[in-house]
């Protein structure tokens, strides 16, 4: 049914970069065989899933939305992908994304834009706009994402779906093409909180192949989603992430959601996180710094695109590298490599990267203080509903500003969820509510999310 649906609608939504119909049917058959043999399988066994094209997959291309990796078929599966296969989730294909996960609209994909199923003239969010769009257009019931600064939560918000960034270290990064290693975290996308919890359970768990993987039991996310209990829970509203700068309709749905939580027995407190004012500045120094280092491996020698400089006979390795990186990377990727190498250069290291790391610590301290008086924190996920194509592509700062509410959790390594809060009055488009929790208390996100559903 999902393959038929893809045939019917993906010509207009354009969320898949690769569809693996035959392989998915074969995996579904294997699930039936395993069941027939009496094997007890996860509740999601047989439920198909779409995988963000940042995760390596055997037998399918992994492009990361970049010309640099066009046609590359990785020789190994990401740990997350292996978990999906072990649990018996047939993989429908790979979803579109901003190149190397840099962006908030999927307009930076080298393979064209993905359209928001709610309004085909608008973006589906990013970088994981392909995953949010397949879920919202019923081309897959589940999808995977990665969230370095909001790329699971913001696409979920603008497509009326649910997305979770787990605690940093909760889900293995092995086999994810790295953007910023200290911020990257893979997580689940779905249409309901319980579906999201079930997928979270499949994806998570300790992995010796990832040095930052947490060796502790996976938080009880499914039980929390099933209980849907917020009685006595202290909900903290982050003063710096409400009101001014947020679209009125987004703010109104947020206020109503908070009232629902009160009606369900929660207590509301206001918290202040003054250092969040500097979160964007810190993030957009730390992320490019790490990205410039991670992307250095695309040197045209080991794998990926290799082109010779035009008109040069017997070019040097350096000339081939320069020509390949020029042809293989898009503008946003180049912009961040330049920013990152500049911020890390010896004369500026203390002023930029060093200062950003200090701000990162202050943000973590703000969270720690806020969690003394609240069990979870809430805010709108994104300042606006889905914007139109081209609205922000000429103004990188405008695009970056949309990440204001999502990036603090990445800087502090904390788990966060976005779930639909309703449709904004101005435009009738979905608005998102964000829930944040302390490290390894991912289950609290699901208690709140399920109570609101
Ligand atoms: N919009 C953010 C950025 O462009 C988020 C990226 C992400 O989470 N992968 O960096």
From TrEMBL:
<feature type="active site" description="Acyl-ester intermediate">
    <location>
        <position position="151"/>
    </location>
</feature>
<keyword id="KW-0808">Transferase</keyword>
<dbReference type="Pfam" id="PF01425">
    <property type="entry name" value="Amidase"/>
</dbReference>
<dbReference type="GO" id="GO:0006412">
    <property type="term" value="P:translation"/>
</dbReference>
<keyword id="KW-0067">ATP-binding</keyword>
<dbReference type="GO" id="GO:0005524">
    <property type="term" value="F:ATP binding"/>
</dbReference>
<protein>
    <recommendedName>
        <fullName>Glutamyl-tRNA(Gln) amidotransferase subunit A</fullName>
        <ecNumber>6.3.5.7</ecNumber>
    </recommendedName>
</protein>
<dbReference type="InterPro" id="IPR004412">
    <property type="entry name" value="GatA"/>
</dbReference>
<feature type="active site" description="Charge relay system">
    <location>
        <position position="52"/>
    </location>
</feature>
<feature type="active site" description="Charge relay system">
    <location>
        <position position="127"/>
    </location>
</feature>
<dbReference type="GO" id="GO:0050567">
    <property type="term" value="F:glutaminyl-tRNA synthase (glutamine-hydrolyzing) activity"/>
</dbReference>
<dbReference type="InterPro" id="IPR036928">
    <property type="entry name" value="AS_sf"/>
</dbReference>
<keyword id="KW-0547">Nucleotide-binding</keyword>
<keyword id="KW-0648">Protein biosynthesis</keyword>
<dbReference type="InterPro" id="IPR000120">
    <property type="entry name" value="Amidase"/>
</dbReference>
<comment type="similarity">
    <text>Belongs to the amidase family. GatA subfamily.</text>
</comment>
<dbReference type="InterPro" id="IPR020556">
    <property type="entry name" value="Amidase_CS"/>
</dbReference>
<keyword id="KW-0436">Ligase</keyword>
<comment type="subunit">
    <text>Heterotrimer of A, B and C subunits.</text>
</comment>
<dbReference type="GO" id="GO:0016740">
    <property type="term" value="F:transferase activity"/>
</dbReference>
<comment type="function">
    <text>Allows the formation of correctly charged Gln-tRNA(Gln) through the transamidation of misacylated Glu-tRNA(Gln) in organisms which lack glutaminyl-tRNA synthetase. The reaction takes place in the presence of glutamine and ATP through an activated gamma-phospho-Glu-tRNA(Gln).</text>
</comment>
<dbReference type="InterPro" id="IPR023631">
    <property type="entry name" value="Amidase_dom"/>
</dbReference>
<dbReference type="GO" id="GO:0030956">
    <property type="term" value="C:glutamyl-tRNA(Gln) amidotransferase complex"/>
</dbReference>
<feature type="domain" description="Amidase">
    <location>
        <begin position="1"/>
        <end position="445"/>
    </location>
</feature>
